[in-house]
Prior knowledge:
The complex is a heterodimer of chains A (about 325) and B (about 500).
Chain A: H1 3-17, E1 30-34, H2 41-57, E2 61-65, H3 72-80, E3 87-92, H4 94-102, E4 112-121, E5 123-127, H5 136-145, E6 151-154, H6 160-172, E7 177-180, H7 184-192, E8 198-202, H8 207-211, E9 216-220, E10 247-254, H9 259-274, H10 276-284, E11 288-292, H11 294-314
Parallel strand pairs in A: 1-2, 1-3, 6-7, 6-8
Antiparallel strand pairs in A: 3-10, 4-10, 4-11, 5-8, 5-9
Chain B: H1 3-14, H2 17-35, H3 41-52, H4 57-82, H5 91-102, H6 106-130, H7 132-139, H8 144-161, H9 166-180, E1 183-184, E2 191-192, H10 206-224, H11 243-265, H12 270-285, H13 297-321, H14 327-338, H15 347-350, H16 352-382, H17 388-407, H18 410-428, H19 434-456, H20 468-489
Antiparallel strand pairs in B: 1-2
Amino acid sequence: MTVKKIAGVLAVLGAFVVPAHAQDYPTKPVTLIVPSPPGGGTDIFAREIAELVSPILGQKVIVDNRAGGGGSVGTTLITAAQPDGYTLGFVWNSPLTTTPHSLQVAYTPDSYAAVMSIGFSSYVLCAAPDFPADNAQQLVEQLKANPGKFTYGNDGVGGTMQLAAERVFAKLGVKVRPVPFGGAGETARNFLGGHVTFYGGSLPPILPHVAAGKAKCLLLTSAAKNASLPQASGLSDIGLGKEETVLWWGLIAPAKTPPAVLLKLEAAFSKAASSAKFKDVMAKQGATQRVIDSQAMGALIRAELAALGEVAKAAGIQKKAQ
Amino acid sequence: MSSFGYLLDGFAVALTARNLLLCFAGCLWGTAVGVLPGLGPLAGMALLLPLTFKLDPTGAVIMLAGIFNGAMYGGSTTSILMRIPGEAASVVTCLDGYEMAKKGRAGAALTIAALGSFVGGTFSIIGLMAIGPVLADAMLTVGPAAEFVLMLTALIVVSAVSNSPPVKTLTMIVVGLALGMVGLDPLTAWPRFTFGSLDMTDGINFVALSIGLFGVSEILLTLDEKIPVVPKAPRWRDLPPTREEFRQATPAVLRGSVIGFLFGLVPGVSHIISTFVSYAVEKKISKTPEAFGTGAVAGVAGPETANNATTGASMIPLMVLGIPAIPATAILLSALLIHGVQPGPLMMSEHPQVFWGLIASLYLGNIILVVLNLPLVSIFVTLLRTPMGILAPLVLTVCLIGVYSVKASPLDLVVVAVSGVAGYLLRKFAYDVAPLLLAFVLADRLELSFRRALTISDGDYAIFVQGPAVKVFLAILLVVGVLQAAAVWLGYRTRTS
C-alpha cells in the first residue's frame, strides 16, 4: 500500500472521527421527538415549526412521535438522548410540570435544557346559560355559597387542566367536585347534556356552543382575557393573575447539549415561531403566539412545577411508582 | 335550500376529480391496512393523518373517511379468511364468516359482507340527513349513568351470542373484565397490575390480544388434526352467493341497518356493541339458531351491515355536536381541527361544503368499496389456495410484524404469544373467547362510567335509576335480563338440535 493510499484512507476515516464543531452545526438532519400521538395540537405545532425552521438551520427536521405515559415516555427519551443537538424535543408543559406529581418520572428540570417557548392556550370554565352567574365575580360568589355542590368536567385526574382549576379554587377557598373525562370533547358532551355543572377544558371545543347560546364562559385560567371569548374574565380580573396555569409548548434539548448549539437553536426556532405564518397556525388551534427565551422558559418550568406540586398535594394526588 | 339541495351540492364537491381521487386513494389504502393483520382503521388513519395537513379540510376528511370505511371492510376480509379480527367490530364476523370459509363459501361471505356494508352505509347516510340532527340532541341525555346501564345490557347480550354454557361464558366475561383493568386507573391514573413495567401502563393492546386469541389459537388448533379443516378456495362458479344465501341475508341486512344506526348515535361504545347486538338478535329470532357458529349467513350479514351503519350514524354526533362518538371519528375531528374547522351546531351553516361534501363522499366511498372489493374477492380467496404449511407461518409472521409496527412494543409480541396459547387451551376446553374480548374492550369504559356517575352524584347510587336515558336503557336491560335468565333457568338453551 502506498503512502498516498494510506493518507487517503486516514483522511476518509478522519472525516468520521473528528467531531463537528458547534459553528458547523447542524451537519445532518435533526430529530424532533414529540411525546404525543400524531394529530393533536402539540403535533401540529411541532410539524409546522419543523418545516419553518428547516430552511433557517439548513437541515431537515424530522418529527418523531413517541406517545405514552402522559408524555413522560417521549420526554424520557429526549433527556436520555445524545446531547449533540441532533435529538431535540417539542413538548407541551404537562410532562414537565404536571406528570411528575402523579407519576414517577426519570427526569427533573436538570435533565434537560429549556430552549424556547412558542406560546400558550388557556383553559376555560363555562356554565349552562341558566346558571345564576353572568360574570366571574358572581361565579365566585356562587362557588363560595355552595361548597361541594357543583361539578366540573376536566381532562383527567392530575392533568394540567384539573390542576389549573384546583389552583384557582384553592386560592378562592372553594370546593368544586372534579369529574374526569377523556378529553375536552367528552367533557363538552357531558356538559351539554347537563351531567356536570361546568365545562372545564380548552377553548376550541366549546366555542361553537357559546356562539349557539348553549354555554356561557365565565373564567379563563390565563391572567389575561382572550379575544375569542370577550365575556370570560382572566384571572387578573379577580386578582389572581399570579395563579395562571395554561397549556404551553416549547423546545427542550438534553441537558449537556453544547451552549453554542443551544444558542443557535434558540435563535432559529424563535425566528420560525415569530413568523406570521406560525401565528396563523396557532390561532387556528385557538392558541396565542407568545415567544419566550430559554431563561424565561426555564424559570417558568421551575415555578410551575413547584406551584402545581402544592396543588396536587392539596388535591390528594399521590405520586405513583411505575 | 332543503337538505336534498345541499346534498346535491355535496355531490358536486365530492365528485370533483381531485376529491374523487382522494376518496379512492383512501378506500384503497384503507382496504390494504385493513387486510394487514395488526393495522386497523385507527392506525391506518393515524398514519396518513400528517399527509392530510397539506390538503383542504374537505379533501382531508374525504380521504380519512375513505380510509376508515376501507379498513373496516378490509378487517372483515381477514376475519372471514383467517379468523383474525383487525379490530373490535370484526370480532363477530370471525364466528360465522370463518366457518363459511371452511365450507368453501368464502367468496359468498365476502360478497355478502361487501353488499351488507353498502346497504348499511347507505341506510345510515339517509338517516343522517333525515333525522340525525334531531336525534343528536336527544342523545346528549346519555350521561355516564346511562352509559353504564347500556354496557351492562351489552354484556348480558353477549351471553346470548356465545355458544358455550352460561357458566363458561360468565367466566370469560370476568376474565375479560379483569384483563381490561390492567394499566392506569382511568380516574386516578394509578398503575394497576403493571408489575412495574412502563409498557403495561398503556394496558394490554387489543389488537395483540385479539390476534392471539383468535388467529394464533386457530393456527394451533389446525396443527392438532391430522387432516385439518381449513378454508377451501372455492371454485370460480361458487364465488357469488347462492339464491338461498341471499334470501337468508336480506332480512338480516335490513335489521342490521336499523340496529347499527341506532347504536351509532349513542356515543362511547356503540361501534363495539352494535355488531354483537345484531348477531344476538339474528340468533334469537332465527328459526335455526343452532346454525350460528357453524357458518350462518345471517351471522355475517347482520353484524357487517350494523358495523357500517354505525359508522355513518357516528358522524352525527361528530358533525352536529362536534363530539367524536367513536375513536375513528376522533381522528376525523382532529383532521378538521387542524384546518380550523370546529364541528358543532354551527358547522352546517359555517362550513356547508365540508359537511355535505363529507356526507356525499361517504356515500361515494361505499360505492367505490363495492366496486373495488367485488373483483378483489376472487383475488383474496385465491390466497386460500396456498397450502396451510406455508400460509400459517406467513400469516403468523405478518401478524407479528403488524402488531409490532403499531407501537414498537416488544410487550405486544409477548401478548400475542401468550394469548395465542391461552386461546388454544380455552377453545380446547370449549370456552368461547369472543365474550372475553368484548368484555375486555368494554372493561375500562364500564368502570369509568360507573365511577364517573358516582362522582357526579357524590356517591348516591340513585343516579342509576334517574333520568330519561337511564330509564329507557334500564327497561331494555330488564327485558333482556329476564328473558336471558328465564332461558337459562328453563334449560331452554338455543341448542335444541
